[in-house]
Amino acid sequence: MKQQDSQKHSSLVALRHSAAHTLAQAVKKLFPTAQVGVGPATEEGFYYDFRYERPFTPEDLERIESEMKSVIRASFPIVRRPVSRSEATALFSGLGEPFKLELIQGIPDEAEITVYEQGEFVDLCRGPHVPSTGDIPAVKLLSTSSAYWKGIESNPSLQRIYGTAFESEGDLDAYLKQLEEIQKRDHRKLGKELDLFRTLDEKGAGLVLWLPKGSQVRRTLEDLWKTLHDQHGYRYVYTPHIARLDLWKQSGHWDYYRDSMFKPMETEGTSYELKPMNCPFHILIFKESVQSYRDLPIRLSELGTVYRYERSGTLHGLMRVRGFTQDDAHIFCKPEDLSDEIQKVLALVDQMIGRFGFQDRTVFLSTRPDKSVGSDENWAMATDALKSALEQANVPYEIDPGEGVFYGPKIDIKFHDAIGRAWQLSTIQVDFNLPEKFDLTYRNAKGEVARPIMIHRALFGSIERFFGILIEHYMGAFPLWLAPEQVRVMSLADRHIPYAQALVDRLKSLRVRAEGDFRNEKIGFKIREAQLWKVPEMWIVGDREVQENRVSLRTREGEKSDLIPQETAVGDLLARCRPAEWAGNPWP
RNA sequence: GCCCUUGUAGCUCAGUUGGCAGAGCACAUCCUUGGUAAGGAUGAGGUCACCGGUUCAAUCCCGGUCAAGGGCUCCA
Prior knowledge:
RNA-binding, 26% strand, globular, Threonyl-tRNA Synthetase, Chain A, domain 2, alpha+beta, 4 domains, 27 strands, five-stranded mixed beta sheet
C-alpha cells in the first residue's frame, strides 16, 4: 500500500514536471523573447519562471493555457538525450537562455548532463518525465507572481507562473474544490464577517485588535490554559514589555536575533528594547526564587505578549503579525530530570490540544543548525534527552536535520485540521545557553554548585495564530464551549419579552454566554441572523412556552426540539457548555 | 524589504474614455406582533486611502507615501 502511494506520488511528480515543460513551450511560442528560468513540480502542482519585458496578465494566462492544451493534443514525444557539456553550452547559448547556461556551470564535472525535447522545445533537465505531452490528462494555470532567480534577493526578479496538473479531470476538480474550501475558511474573511478581530493596518500593520467576540473566545482559551497549567504544577507570572537593552545583550538576543527586533528606544540617555521573547524575564525570576535542588523543577508560565519586527511583505492576517502573545513557559530542571519533564510537556500538549478535534499529529525532532552556540557535549546530551522522552512516551517522530534553534534542539508538533492541512503548534526547546549566560545555579544534593537546564515550550505557539487556525478549522462555527455567544434567546412577539429576558438573565447568572434578540422582527429573520453569526443554540419563546415554562430549541445544525421544560433545557445546557475541567463549577 | 495587483458608504461591490458620486446589505424612524434562514415604507450616511503634480476642471491621468492581496524570503 505504502509503495503504491509512493509510486503514485512519483508519477504525479513526473506528470507535473512535464506540465511545467509544456508551460515553457507554450510561453516560448507565444512570447519568443521570454527567457526561461527553472520549472519544477511542487507539492500541489508546478511552476515555471520566466524573464519577460512585461508582467503576464490573466488574459495572457488564458492564451498560454490554451496553447498548452494544443501542445498536449499534439502528443509530442518527450525525449531524453544525454549531451556533453560543450554541446549543452552551445545549445543554450544558441537559444539565448542565460539562466540555463548558469545552471550548466553549476553542474559538477562528473555529472551527466541531459536535455529533454518535446516538439520544437528543448530544456535542460534531469527528468523524469511522462513519455509524451499527450500523457497530461488535466492541467490548469492558477496564478502569476514574481520570484528572484534562485530565490536570492540580489538576483533579477523573474515572473513565476503557477499551475497544477492531475491524472484526471476529476482529480483536478477535487483540487479546485479544495482551493475554494480554503478560501471559504479564510480567517481574515471570517474574522471580519463574524466581528472576531481586525488588524490595525494603516494605524499599525501586523497589529491585532481583538473585537469583543474574538476576545471572548480568547478568554475561554486562556482560562482553560491557566486551569490546566495550575493543575500541572506551573506558576503563573507577569513580566514587563520592555527592558534595558543590556538585558537583551546579556541574553544573546541582540547578537543572534537583532534582525527580528524593533529598534531600541532612547529614554533619559538609556536604550530600552521591546521584548521579542519572554525568557530573559523568567530567568530573572528564577534567580530571585531558586537556590536549592529542592526547589526544582520550577515551571514558570505566562501568556506573554511579544513584539517582533517582521518584514512588511510577510505579514498575513493573524498567522504572521508583529505583536503576538505566546502561551509561554520555561521549565528549569536538573539535568537528570530533563527527559521526565519533556514527557510531562508532551502529555500536557495532548491534554490541551486534544480537545479541538484535529485529525492527527506529527512530531519532528530538530537537530543542531549551522548557526548555533554551545558545546558538542551539550547538544548531544539535549538531543538524547528529547529522543528518550519521545521514545519513552511512545511518540513516533521524524528527524528534521539542522532545523533546531541556535541555542538548542527542539521538538515541533504539527496538527492536521478539518481539511487536512498541517499546522505547527506546539514546540519544546532545550536550552543550555541562557542558564550559562545568566549564570543560573542551584545547590545540588551534595552541596555543590550546579547549573540547571532550561526548557522553553509553547502549546498553542501564539494565541493570535492559534485563533486564526481555529477559525479556519471550525469555519467560524466554534463548538459550544468555545463559542463567543453560546445561546440566543428569541421572542416571537413583544408580549414574550419579559419571560425571554428572565431566561437570558438566568443563563447569564449561570455564566452561560447568552444574548436575547427581542427586536420587532419575524422569527425567521432572527433565526437567519443567528445562523449567519453561527450561534450554536437558539432558544425560541412564544405563547406556548410562556404558558408552560418551556423553551423550543433549534441548533445551528438545524435540529429542532419543541417545548422542552425550562429546567431540563438549562440543566442539559450546563452539562455541555463547559470543558470537562470546569464541569459542575460555573465559576472557573 | 523586493516583484505584480488592488484601495469608492460600517460591509460587499458597481461607476465616471476628466465635468456636482451609485446599488445591495447593515444603520435610524414609522407601519406590522409575525412559529423555525430575509414583512413593508421612509431616511440618514462618502475629502472616492493619504500627499503632491498636470488641467478651466482630477475619484479618474502622472509621481510619491501608507495599507491590503498573491508570491519570493522568513517564521509563532
